[in-house]
């Protein structure tokens, strides 16, 4: 099934974006659109709204607003899970053990498990929400669903 997902290169990995983009293309994703932006604190709080109230919420907002991010709409077969596999586990140390070739293993911060270089939507609903968040003016045709 063809899906779209939102991929986000986080501020500390933006210098590695050419290498990460190369991986995106080698993995067979289609880049539907891309945008480089610096999020305001309010925007970051909205984007990560589901984590509001958690112990790490403020540090997460600090991290994601510390510089520019690069957002991509990726399309492809099973794109949501495919991109999450390419990312590897959320924690950098786990990614290095369990998925050494993954983006988080290769580009995540060795000194901070959660400064993990990149993000991917975790469901069809969050993909839709996150794509709209970064690309509010873009009209996309519905993806054909069918198993
Ligand atoms: P991401 O895939 O962008 O989704 C939410 C982010 O919150 C996650 O990657 C990490 O960067 C961060 N995060 C998740 N869990 C924790 C945690 N326990 N402590 C600090 N940061 C976290």
Any chance you could write out the topology, listing elements then pairs?
Layout: E1 2-9, H1 17-26, E2 30-37, H2 41-47, H3 57-64, E3 69-77, H4 79-87, H5 92-98, H6 103-107, E4 118-120, H7 124-134
Antiparallel strand pairs: 1-3, 1-4, 2-3
The structure holds adenosine-3',5'-cyclic-monophosphate.
Give a structural overview.
The chain has 7 helices and 4 strands, in the order βαβααβαααβα. It has helices at 17-26, 41-47, 57-64, 79-87, 92-98, 103-107, 124-134; strands at 2-9, 30-37, 69-77, 118-120. The protein has a single domain, classed as Nucleoside diphosphate kinase-like domain (Alpha-Beta Plaits). It starts with a strand and ends in a 13-residue tail after the last helix. The chain has a 4-stranded antiparallel β-sheet, with helices on both faces. The mean pLDDT is 96. Helix content is 39%, strand content 19%. It has 147 residues and is of the alpha+beta class. Residues 56, 60, 90, 114, 116, 119 line the site of adenosine-3',5'-cyclic-monophosphate.
């Amino acid at each position: 099934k063809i899906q779209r997902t939102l991929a986000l290169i986080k501020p500390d990995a933006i210098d590695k974006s050419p290498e990460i983009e190369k991986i995106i293309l080698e993995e067979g994703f289609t880049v539907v659109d891309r945008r480089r932006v610096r999020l305001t604190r309010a925007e970051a709080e909205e984007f990560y709204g589901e984590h509001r109230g958690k112990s790490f919420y403020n540090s997460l907002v600090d991290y994601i607003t510390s510089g520019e991010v690069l957002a991509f709409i990726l399309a492809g077969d099973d794109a949501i899970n495919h991109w999450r596999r390419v990312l590897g586990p959320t924690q950098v140390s786990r990614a290095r053990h369990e998925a050494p070739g993954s983006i988080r293993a290769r580009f995540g911060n060795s000194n901070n498990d959660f400064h993990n270089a990149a993000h991917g939507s975790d469901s069809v609903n969050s993909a839709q929400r996150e794509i709209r968040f970064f690309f509010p003016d873009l009209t996309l045709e519905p993806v054909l669903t069918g198993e």
